[in-house]
């Protein structure tokens, strides 16, 4: 056996970490004063706010970059306040180590002013300055799209002049580190959830008033066709459509309620959209709709979505994408009409069921959509483009995407049943969404797929079963809580950052969580892992610690490590021995062997040797969510420490 000294182990560990760094800048932990790097070469916490919010080129938001003792990459923060908030987390030092160097944007080197929104603008990008030598203006009128922001200056006179013009106080670095800032993070998403759902209730109540308009026209009595009745009806009245089959397409260009009575069917000709509304406060209620056209898109070419090609999108990219996704046929389409209602409607469609385009505060309620028999040939049960809608209490079956969104910030998707689609809910470029209380079954690929890196998504109280992958939450600052994920190949494909993942039951999956995040900034606690073949799999990356303030998760198998009936010792679901505790008899005795405990303790001191590992320093003796676990087939396998 070749003996390796403690120093030798450290060198080997650093070499392993740095060798696979790829295009990202790897910090040299042996350098006491590393030079700053290009911000694009950092691992970033938060999105590029300029891109996400389509800010003008002269907007130069404050940033920070940090070199850590235990983390091999340089971390880029969207704002000094973001770094201060992350640093205050109880396990921050354990995950990252100590800051070796902190650099911030220096606004003394540029001519800075503020827009009407408070965004800092300058003729060039501010250079970097060591944070310890900078002066900071906090509490000023300066803002980023995420809220208040701190502006740094190398010259104190410049900082005082900025504060005199724009308000705030001048602070030294040590004072900034002790300050508290309002950061729009995952905890804010959690705290605002009840308010968001209450706001959706109010939107729904407002939409329901559209049913109360006075009747002006009755088809069959006043006119022969629905279209003639719509044309004749005064605005803000109701057109009643008695039971029967109506072979036509309908266009509504005024605030109107179109209400079917009994078995009223609108049968389109098999091409185009059957009912199109282009006015605010339009309601379509009480119909069966058939004969929808099979055009699933407005253009054949799909503009690129991915973050890797954002620089190549160019002007008009969003318009091209909108033309593609919003140009298909639908059973009901509301285009450019706010505060509408589509309710109590059954749609059979080879393309879209309900299409919303530029139609904020529209409510889709108690709608049933039966899509194409082959999911890849359809489009979406509900397709929301630039539409902060409320989609609730609906059933969507056999489509390409159950619910698809693009740039529909603040959308609420709740209490729906989504079965047999390619994807259940598919979010694109949509921040601040709420996905709550839905039931997903038998999707071809994924239950909930959040793509293109939005922020502040709430995914709560959903049940996802019998799907290839349960949840892929590619979003930062998100709140993923109280979900049941059962019977999937991968329960959660975890690649978020700065998110809270808590109170979920992850049971009976081939893999509970596939951990892919490069940044160890998520708080993953109070979840229950039962009946999974592998509770967690993990890619190469930093040590991830899934406990906080003495609270961890419940792991089937970890309880066998407890000799006293009290809380078991630290558990690592990615450890070659621990990962088999719930599968193989006798593994617990091996895990408690002194030699293995010594190796685990040594590896914990040398972060390079724990690359790719997940550890829970405070696993619980009993499930954290017993009522939720009882809804699965695996509750009887949740062993306690006793």
UniProtKB/TrEMBL annotation:
Compositionally biased region (Basic and acidic residues): 302-316
InterPro entries: N2O_reductase_NosL, NosD_dom, Para_beta_helix_rpt-2, PbH1, Pectin_lyas_fold, Pectin_lyase_fold/virulence, SCF-Subunits/Alg-Epimerases
Pfam families listed in its UniProt record: NosD, NosL
Region (Disordered): 289-316
Top-level taxon: Archaea
Limits of the Periplasmic copper-binding protein NosD beta helix domain: 387-557
Protein's pathway: Protein modification; protein ubiquitination
Iron-sulfur listed as a keyword: no
Entry keyword annotation includes Transferase: no
Record keywords, A-Z: Repeat, Ubl conjugation pathway
NCBIfam families (UniProt xref): para_beta_helix
Designated name of the protein: Parallel beta-helix repeat (Two copies)
Species this protein is from: Natronorubrum thiooxidans
Species lineage: Archaea, Methanobacteriati, Methanobacteriota, Stenosarchaea group, Halobacteria
């Amino acid at each position: 056996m070749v003996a390796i000294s403690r120093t030798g182990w450290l060198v080997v560990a650093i070499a392993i970490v740095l060798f696979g760094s790829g295009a990202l800048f790897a910090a040299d932990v042996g350098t006491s004063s590393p030079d700053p790097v290009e911000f694009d070469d950092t691992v970033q916490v938060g999105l590029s706010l300029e891109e996400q919010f389509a800010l003008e080129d002269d907007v130069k938001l404050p940033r920070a970059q940090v070199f850590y003792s235990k983390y091999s990459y340089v971390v880029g923060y969207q704002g000094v306040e973001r770094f201060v908030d992350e640093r205050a987390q109880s396990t921050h030092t354990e995950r990252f180590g100590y800051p070796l160097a902190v650099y911030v944007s220096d606004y003394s080197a540029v001519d800075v002013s503020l827009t009407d929104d408070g965004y800092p603008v300058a003729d060039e990008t501010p250079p970097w300055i060591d944070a310890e030598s900078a002066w900071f203006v906090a509490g000023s009128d300066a803002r980023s799209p995420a809220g208040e922001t701190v502006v740094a200056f190398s010259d104190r006179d410049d900082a005082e002049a900025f504060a005199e013009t724009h308000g705030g106080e001048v602070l030294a670095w040590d004072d900034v580190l002790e300050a508290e800032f309002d950061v729009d993070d995952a905890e804010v998403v959690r705290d605002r959830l009840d308010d968001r759902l209450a706001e959706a209730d109010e939107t729904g109540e407002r939409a329901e008033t559209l049913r109360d308009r006075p009747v002006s026209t009755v088809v069959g009595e006043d006119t022969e066709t629905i279209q003639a009745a719509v044309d004749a009806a005064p605005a803000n009245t109701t057109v009643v459509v008695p039971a029967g089959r109506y072979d036509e397409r309908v266009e509504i260009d005024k605030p109107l309620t179109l209400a079917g009575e009994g078995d009223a069917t609108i049968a389109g000709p098999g091409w185009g959209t059957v009912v199109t509304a282009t006015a605010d406060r339009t309601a379509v209620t009480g119909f069966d709709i058939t004969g929808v056209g099979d055009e699933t898109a407005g253009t054949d070419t799909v503009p690129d979505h991915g973050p890797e090609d954002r620089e190549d999108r160019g002007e008009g990219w969003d318009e091209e994408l909108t033309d593609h996704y919003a140009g298909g046929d639908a059973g009901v389409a509301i285009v450019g009409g706010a505060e509408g209602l589509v309710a109590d409607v059954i749609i059979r469609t080879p393309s879209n069921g309900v299409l919303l385009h530029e139609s904020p505060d529209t409510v889709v309620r108690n709608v049933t959509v039966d899509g194409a028999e082959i999911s890849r040939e359809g489009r979406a049960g509900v397709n929301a483009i630039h539409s902060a809608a409320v989609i609730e209490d609906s059933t969507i079956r056999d489509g390409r995407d159950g619910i698809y969104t693009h740039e529909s910030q603040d959308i609420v998707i709740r209490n729906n049943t989504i079965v047999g689609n390619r994807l259940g809910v598919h979010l694109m470029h949509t921040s601040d969404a709420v996905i709550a209380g839905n039931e997903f079954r038998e999707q071809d690929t994924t239950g909930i797929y959040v793509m293109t890196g939005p922020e502040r998504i709430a995914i709560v109280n959903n049940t996802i079963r019998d799907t290839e992958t349960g949840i892929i939450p590619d979003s930062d600052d998100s709140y993923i809580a109280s979900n049941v994920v059962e019977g999937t190949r991968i329960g959660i494909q975890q690649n978020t950052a700065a998110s809270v993942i808590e109170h979920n039951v992850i049971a009976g999956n081939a893999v509970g969580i596939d951990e892919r995040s490069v940044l160890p900034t998520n708080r993953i606690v109070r979840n229950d892992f039962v009946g999974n073949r592998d509770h967690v799999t993990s890619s190469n990356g930093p040590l991830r610690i899934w406990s906080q303030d003495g609270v961890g998760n419940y792991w089937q198998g970890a309880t066998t490590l407890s000799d006293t009936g009290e809380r078991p010792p630290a558990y690592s679901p990615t450890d070659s021995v621990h990962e088999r505790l719930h599968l193989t008899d006798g593994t617990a005795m091996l895990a408690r062997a002194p030699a293995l405990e010594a190796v685990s303790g040594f590896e914990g001191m040398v972060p390079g040797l724990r690359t790719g590992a997940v550890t829970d320093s405070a696993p619980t003796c009993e499930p954290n969510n017993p009522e939720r676990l009882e809804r699965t087939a695996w509750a009887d396998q949740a062993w306690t420490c006793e």
